[in-house]
Amino acid sequence: MTSATTTTGTRAVKGSVGSAHTRVEGRDKVTGAARYAGEIPFAELAHGWLALSTVARGRIRSVDTAPVLAMPGVLAVLHHENAPRVDTDYVGLLGTPDPTAAVFQHDRVPHMGWPVALVVAETSEQAREAAEALVVHYEQEPHDVAFSADRPDAYPLDNFGPAVTQKGDLETGLAASAVVVDAEYTTPEEHHNPMEPHAATALWDGGRLEVVDSNQGTFWVASEIANMFSLDPASVRVRSEHVGGGFGSKGLRAHQVAAVMAATVLQRPVRVVMTRRQMFSLTGYRSPTTQRVRLGADADGRLRALDHSSLSLTSTVHEFIEACAAPARVMYDADAHHTANRLVRLDVPTPTFMRAPGEAPGSFALESALDELAEKCGIDPIELRVRNEPERGPVSGLPFSSRNLLACFREGARRFGWADRDPRPGLRRDGRWLLGTGTAAASFGSAAMPSTAAVTAEADGTFTVRVNAADIGTGARTALTLVAADALETAPDQVRVHIGDSDLGPAVLAGGSMGTRSWSWAVMIAAGELRERLALNTGIPPEGITVRSDTTAAIGALSRKERHSFGAQFAEVAVDPATGEVRVRRMLGIFAAGRIVNPLTARSQLVGGMTWGISMALHEEAVRDRATGGHYGADLAGYHVASHADVPHIEADWVDDVDPDDPVGIKGIGEVGIVGAAAAVANAVWHATGVRHRNLPIRPDRVL
Ligand code: MOS
């Protein structure tokens, strides 16, 4: 890898985009100079600790505040009878708010771990001790947390696309097929637990509300808080400079709202930090899914019929659907094509966006089914995908902006050594280990959303970029530095980028794999205009020259196309038939994911996604106890994730793929890395053992 950090002053330099660059804030992070939300000091800071319900359904009869208020350092106990009222009847940037964040508004308890009180004290230890001593009396009601494929109360929900798509006659197509796969797949409840737990400090300062937070978009969170507390948006400032992971979990949550309430009541800064255990019920998760895939094909593997139906769950207070059937609308065509996403409401916390929502569990089912079809047809799994590569969007009929999926498979097969593969299962041994290889396809939507940016040419010849991006560990700040440097024809070290502050103006959140693309677009427009102005050579005044941009019009003018990133995943596993242990020996992912801005951090993102895919395939499973309605082991000891010893050699790379309509050529890489990874592992386990695993995770007891 080459470094592009040549220092050439303000001389014209091109080519920062596409060359490896270490994080501009890397030194601050490894030396501890970078402060995270829970460790920024404030004078007169008070600490709030959330108390969560210990029943899964019912009503709060009473909260025994008096004994707790007498405890050392305790300043207040907020609960449904005394907390400030908030508004939840609005449509925010992502739709109607999840009432889970609107804490202490009523006496109903809709799930285990529902916030029932905030204890505020002088120190966090005092707050925690008091919160744990707080006695809340409940009127308990029977709860229902039983998720299963045959729920009679399941219903289709349009969200992120229609609930159901239908083309041709499915049953006729299946009946006319020489080969049929009809299989049910399940994935468990899975949790995103960023290394940095959710934390926020709220304070009123000269009539303005300021919230120092860890989130995926300060403009978004600020607008939610303004809506909820009926405040002028200009009077709310949210900052979030460094974020230790998000993955979809870091939006508006109970901690920010509780902190704002307490800061308002006490008129002093209040910090609320969640424990990891609290995150299991308060910050969203991936719903368990049951999915049925039916594939009908001619003997040569060409699909006649494709059906993908998915069921996921949500809470009783908010609808969120895990749209697992969505990838089938993009990946494969058939004359008879049917997809459906259904939902059931249970007495559980609300799930949310978790890295590659829909695509991650959906691709496990669909790409496993493709592998089963390849086996039944006696066709190589890659050749099967070649024969079913669609010309246009199978459901939309729209052209692809660019696809290059087969280029990923070709390059992946070459580098992985796929050509020598004996397709028969259960034949290869290395001592006691059975060996197998598997592959799967990946896709994730490539979108862009309106954002604003301001670029300033400073009098000293350097540049300042202000764009309200969120760097949740992705390297977005560095990517934007490289994009700006190229657009300004300067070196990256001549550019400073300010992000993570709602006062910087409107910008999309870090989500949907569209952050870097959307923010870069705004930076490109402002920087391009600034260069034109500088070319007039009128000199730079002391305050500099600033150009602002807004991409609303440019993004609105995008033509309708199927826009996605794609990829090919490969895995080699070893299975111990005596213990049931599965070990991934190596993985390779080749992606067609647009122009890669910073290969160093892009590779990290993709390898991170693939690592999570191993975790999803073999380890992750939140187990909900039907009797209590709560989790067993809601922590990182009980919730098993892949650790270093589980993660072997992982390689991620890409083929040339430039988005034709994006000013930089970016498509987005945040999520595609996890898609298909679990299916590649599961398909490799079949190849090793001859046994199909349709239920994740592939635990040792399931292998035996
Ligand atoms: Mo991502 S699941 O869009 O934060």
Would you mind describing this structure in some detail?
- It is built from 17 helices and 27 strands.
- With 704 residues, it is an alpha+beta fold.
- Among the domains are: 117 residues, Aldehyde oxidase/xanthine dehydrogenase, molybdopterin binding domain (Aldehyde Oxidoreductase, domain 4, 2-Layer Sandwich), CATH 3.30.365.10; 235 residues, 2-Layer Sandwich (Aldehyde Oxidoreductase, domain 4).
- A seven-stranded mixed β-sheet has the order 3-5-1-13-10-11-12, with helices on both faces. Strands 7, 8, 9, 14, 15 and 16 form a six-stranded mixed β-sheet that branches. Strands 17-18-23-24-27 form a five-stranded mixed β-sheet, with helices on both faces.
- Helix 8 links the parallel strand 15 and strand 16.
- Helix 9 packs parallel to helix 16, helix 12 runs parallel beside helix 13 and helix 15 packs across helix 16.
- The N terminus is likely disordered.
- The structure holds dioxothiomolybdenum(VI) ion.
- Dioxothiomolybdenum(VI) ion binds next to loops.
